[in-house]
Amino acid sequence: MESKRQQKVSSLLQQELAAVFQRDLPHLFPGLAPGISTVRVSPDLGVARVYLSQLLAKEGSGEATLALVRDNQKMVRQALAKRIRQQLRIVPDLVFFLDDSAAYAAKMDQVFGQLNIPAPEPEADEQTGEAAPKRPKLFADEDE
């Protein structure tokens, strides 16, 4: 459970890092637009884990973007420090990770789409002869 201070710092870092990538350092990432999906800050506010997402990127370009960001990590941290120097006393160390949750969700959606689940056969009601929906058994000792 994150404290309110951690949540505020995470939100600030997420907004400012997005601005750094889009406005301050676009020349370091030509043709790539790394998005910041999540930022998690340690309790002492010394380390920030930044999760980068590549929603509109080709397969495999996420690793290239991550490597490029890690190579230029010092410049990213300096640009971030210029933007947040009035809000935070110490700029946290940035650790970048690739966020693959969108790819995982797409894969799960594809798997669920391929499932073939047959519809249950309706049972006939004894009194009217119409098909009545079957009520699921909630407990093992429940009578039918």
UniProtKB/TrEMBL annotation:
<dbReference type="InterPro" id="IPR015946">
    <property type="entry name" value="KH_dom-like_a/b"/>
</dbReference>
<dbReference type="GO" id="GO:0043024">
    <property type="term" value="F:ribosomal small subunit binding"/>
</dbReference>
<comment type="subunit">
    <text>Monomer. Binds 30S ribosomal subunits, but not 50S ribosomal subunits or 70S ribosomes.</text>
</comment>
<dbReference type="InterPro" id="IPR000238">
    <property type="entry name" value="RbfA"/>
</dbReference>
<feature type="region of interest" description="Disordered">
    <location>
        <begin position="116"/>
        <end position="144"/>
    </location>
</feature>
<keyword id="KW-0963">Cytoplasm</keyword>
<comment type="function">
    <text>One of several proteins that assist in the late maturation steps of the functional core of the 30S ribosomal subunit. Associates with free 30S ribosomal subunits (but not with 30S subunits that are part of 70S ribosomes or polysomes). Required for efficient processing of 16S rRNA. May interact with the 5'-terminal helix region of 16S rRNA.</text>
</comment>
<comment type="similarity">
    <text>Belongs to the RbfA family.</text>
</comment>
<dbReference type="Pfam" id="PF02033">
    <property type="entry name" value="RBFA"/>
</dbReference>
<keyword id="KW-0690">Ribosome biogenesis</keyword>
<protein>
    <recommendedName>
        <fullName>Ribosome-binding factor A</fullName>
    </recommendedName>
</protein>
<dbReference type="GO" id="GO:0005829">
    <property type="term" value="C:cytosol"/>
</dbReference>
<dbReference type="GO" id="GO:0030490">
    <property type="term" value="P:maturation of SSU-rRNA"/>
</dbReference>
<dbReference type="InterPro" id="IPR023799">
    <property type="entry name" value="RbfA_dom_sf"/>
</dbReference>
